[in-house]
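#onboarding

Welcome to the new folks! Below is a worked example of what a typical request in this channel looks like: someone posts a single protein sequence, and someone else replies with the predicted structure as tokens. Don't worry about understanding the tokens yet, we'll cover that in week two.

Example request:
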Amino acid sequence: MTKKKNYVTMDGNTAAAYASYAFTEVAGIYPITPSSGMADSVDQWAQQGRKNLFGQDVRVIEMQSEGGAAGLVHGSLASGALTTTYTASQGLLLMIPNMYKMAGELLPAVFHVSARAIAGHALSIFGDHSDVMAARQTGFAILASHGVQSAMDLGIVAHLSAIRGRVPFMHFFDGFRTSHEIQKVEQIDYADLAGLVDMEAVNAFRERGLTPNEPCLRGSAQNPDIFFQMKEASNEYYNALPEIVEHYMDEISRLTGRTYRPFVYHGAPDAEEIIICMGSVYDTACETSDHLNCQGRKTGVVHVHLYRPFCADRLLEAIPETVRRIAVLDRSKEPGAQGEALYLDVVSAVSCANLPVVVSGGRYGLGSKDTTPSQIKAVFDMLAGDPVKEFTIGITDDVTHLSLPVTETLEVSPEGTFTARFWGLGSDGTVGANQNSIKIIGDNTPMYAQAYFSYDSKKSGGVTISDLRFGNSPIRAPYLVESADFVACHNQAYISKYDMLKVLKKGGSFLLNTTRSAEELEEFLPGQVKRFLAENEIRLYIIDAVKMAQEIGLGNRINTICQAAFFKISEVIPVDEAVRHMKEAIVRSYGDKGEDIVNMNYRAVDAGIEEVREVKVPESWKDAPDTRAPLREATTF
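Example response:
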């Protein structure tokens, strides 16, 4: 009998934390954005008494810096306890000295990294691969995930491989784009993982632990007569590691039906142009490749899962023999180098094999710059035309002129995918409401769901944008919504500042939370907005959620009211069903705060359903003149 799969709606941090908790005896933590969610989940589960795979309590210890956390991990491993940490960016850099020691002493550490930019010309708390690339020389094996589901699956592979192979692992995924993206994923049962653990290797590791009862020498100082020889003595462990990783990837594939290999190929079997990449851009590239192949192109994409040790033979096996042009996408920049790290590895592999292939190197996504199907098409178009050695996508480089031109906007989402964007004010509850909406749909219907949240640097009191997608097919779109069925503005001040309707499809729905009446919209709305509404046959809705929240007693928390209005307008699931699930969620969230609080939120749900009003858009708005300053793009807060 086939075991029923358990699907849960969670973000990438939670998925990686779930994987790590199974194999962790001690967690040494120090929070840093955007990895904090992993440590937070592990700490909560430990306090709740949740057991790991071995039936043990997990000991979580928070230190006073990332350097301290790394020292704790090193010492704990040396004593024979399976130990894990979670970090990013400068936090990872502070751990590098200890990482050399852990690798040199063959200690099976696992670092889960939500990859983030390193502060250089400016601080950025957002995502790219700068931190991981800065630590690639430490001797850690490096395993890359491309989404929320693979963050769980390959997080498991990292722990199993570290235990058997004795080489520490750095398992990474894109900060924010994966760490904070919410998806409906399959949660693997710990009972199914128990039989995969090499208990002989676990027991041998524990027996090697430092103890005064059986003294031994560890971490000595060595002179020129033996240091070099001893350094080379670890080669056999790294040579054996790819086969170990492949073994556990096969085991996870057997359990889940999802295929994992050190290098995974997707695309035409006779492709002529391919992209090689790591991280969430893989899904974007795959969707774009599929779209182009349906038009007669021959393209493909390779995802590098096992980046260190880098196995050139396995990479070449994954590349179709017909390929003649390759673009390597790196999400990092090494100033002054001949190319970025992954690009140089691919060039070396291709060159040593004497393949008749042209290899181009491109940078993308630094500091969480969005990478879209349109940009990926530009890469494939470049390969098909006149390949360049070096390029960038996603920006306009008006200094060194390396940018590839984007000639069209692609819509590659599966048929029937519903997309929505919500503009909110930090702390007004919009993000929390959308997280709740995703869980309602993901956990209570057969539909797939995805949510991603963009913040400006002020967070509380700043602009928030929530991008949601729902559909009957798996959602592989790790980029911002470019074509929305529904847009909501929860702060009326934004309507004259931001070009929030640009992404709204013709015939779509727009919800405006405003204190103005329908009659006052004529004077209140900018001319650009009125023209767009009329020319694109937009269904306009208004609601005064601020007034209702104050009357109900919720203060500035308009989230529940606006969430209910969204379900009524969008009908993404039946309204009665949505109301029932919302009220069940209210009981779970506020039941311990008393009946008055629960009833207050019940009234908010009912108000959102009853008070939202559709406003007929006048034909005369098509001729509305510009009355305000130009509206800013969504990404220019």
